[in-house]
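Protocol step 4 of 6.
Sequence for Elongation of very long chain fatty acids protein (Lates calcarifer) entered exactly as in the expression construct, tag removed. Do not edit the line below.
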Amino acid sequence: MKTVSLYSALFSVTNQCCIFLRCTSFMFCGLYAALVFGGQHFMRERPKLNLRRPLALWSLSLAIFSIIGAFRTGLYMLHVLTTSGFRQSVCDTSFYSAPITKFWAYAFVLSKAPELGDTVFIVLRKQRLIFLHWYHHITVLLYSWYSYKDQVAGGGWFMTMNYMVHSFMYTYYAARAAGLRVPRPCAMIITATQILQMVMGLAVVGLVYYWMNEVRCPSNLGNITWGSLMYLSYLILFASFFYNSYLKGSSSGKGSKSE
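Step 5 output, structure tokens:
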């Protein structure tokens, strides 16, 4: 009885947090944009800050978080794939409530807020801030905070892929910030995995739409529309970044969307 009461209390708290996240998401992103572009104006006449050690620690902490998240969610998705098949792995919504993945699904949603700190280092170090960077941060946060409460199908794939890509990406950032020499092909591979993530994201959204009325694959047209537009825009932007950074031999390319 106590266990049931505890789970009910946790569900109530989580539900209230979801409502709070939805209500504050646009305000949060607006504040982020104001601080980013206001910070650039503030730093215009000031010397850039080094911040290599804080950046290395920051990136390392996010790398460790992403690696653990990828391991926990990846094992669960592998279990669903091998026991129930691919369709169930796409349509399964127990990812949000299963004992193994419930925490990591919620942690994923919340992590989109501290990840905005990546931009703080770019602004304070007076590095080039590209559109892809801040657009990606804002839209991922909005989509994640809105989608989590609805617990739509496809979420397991979206979160697991993001955890995996971020595991490599933040490890790369930490190594670079620590002054380690990382071969240039590593940056290319990371950007390529980001592009692959967007292709797979579009495929999952498409499958959810296709199966939505045939089997239990809960979603809604609004979520599918915004998810499709989001992943398509990411695919175009990351592909353009890859082309300009590597295929054109641009010396200004940094190897990933932020560094």
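Step 6, annotate. Confidence is low (pLDDT under 50) at residues 6-11, 250-256.
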